Task: structure prediction
Amino acid sequence: MLASVDIETGEERWSQRLSCGGAWASPIATAEHVWFFGTGGLTSVLRVGPDGVEELRVNKLVAEGRVHGVAAVDGKFLVREDSRVLCID
Result:
């Protein structure tokens, strides 16, 4: 579940379930997009704004096992799973 909360009042502005399900690794954000790497091998690519979330794409990650960490390097993602590291270009 992803939610936005007003920092001054603590009131929830909006909330939305992600198609990728629960996330194993920390999300990665740029100025325009946020990537969530889900427990079932799905990745949700979002555009987040003050009024809500637009899910732009859901991709299937070719991981073999649990994703433990993700890093953005030179325009690519490095994905660490149980026994290997993937480079996604």
